[in-house]
Amino acid sequence: MRQFLFTAVITACLGATSAQAEAVQGDAAAGEKVFAKCSGCHQVGSGAKHRVGPHLNGIFGMAAGSHEEFRYSKAFQRLGSTGLEWHADTLDAFLENPRAMSRGTRMSFPGVKDADDRANLIAYLRTFSDNPADIPEADPTAQVLDHNLDPAILALVGDREYGEYLSSECTTCHQASGGDSGIPSIVYWPEEDFVIAMHAYKEKVRPNPVMQLVAGRLGDEEIAALAAYFATIED
Predict the structure, then answer these.
(1) Contact at 8 Å (CB) between 145 and 203?
(2) Of 53, 90, 153, 207, which has the highest C-beta tally within 10 A?
(3) Within this chain, do residues 204 and 103 fall inside the same structural domain, yes or no?
(4) Is the entire prediction scored with pTM above 0.90?
(5) Is 64 helix (H, G, I), strand (E, B) or coil?
(6) What's the pLDDT band for 147 if we cut at 50, 70, 90?
(7) What is the largest CA-CA distance in the chain?
(8) Pick from 106, 107, 112: which is nearest to 92 by CA?
(9) Contact (CB, 8 A) for 70 and 50
(10) What's the pLDDT tens digit per position in 184-212?
(11) Domain range enclosing 169
């Protein structure tokens, strides 16, 4: 019964947007600019990889939550279990309000409220799908931020158990479930991204007084341990 109601809610959401999605022809060039809002977590194009979120190559026709090598939240796994596939109408509904479609998702993005922006973004993502096959994939639009961190620090292998011990200070704000209430999720961050971000706070390159204070108290081994823990934390 619960599964039926969940599917019905998704169907209702799609019904409100599918006609609009089909009616609006998006501008892929304009959509590339909209994608800048997504590029902190997702990559597209040649060489795109899973980062905080999965890469979005080949998304059209793909079942939700179906990248076998990406660890989705349980909320997104439930969404995928409904048989939902990504097409213009389903993407439009999801992009308007991700949490309305996937309650409890780790995705902190509030959505793209403007219908034209959504249509443009969908048109842009469409160019990275296998069909039509004659549209070549472009270079990745999201790259890891430049940094001057010592390679020896990035090479440290974190002690996951130690990271779990240290994590209580982090989880007073960041939810271990991966959800968020205005505070971004750090669950399943790639370890290198986590380490780079924490050292950026420590060196006051990233602005956030609270995070600068927290990171400033951590040594290299402690940051590596936290990175190892949050990269593999269980839901």
Answers:
(1) no
(2) 90
(3) no
(4) no
(5) coil
(6) low
(7) 55
(8) 112
(9) yes
(10) 778 888 898 889 889 888 888 776 778 88
(11) 151-232
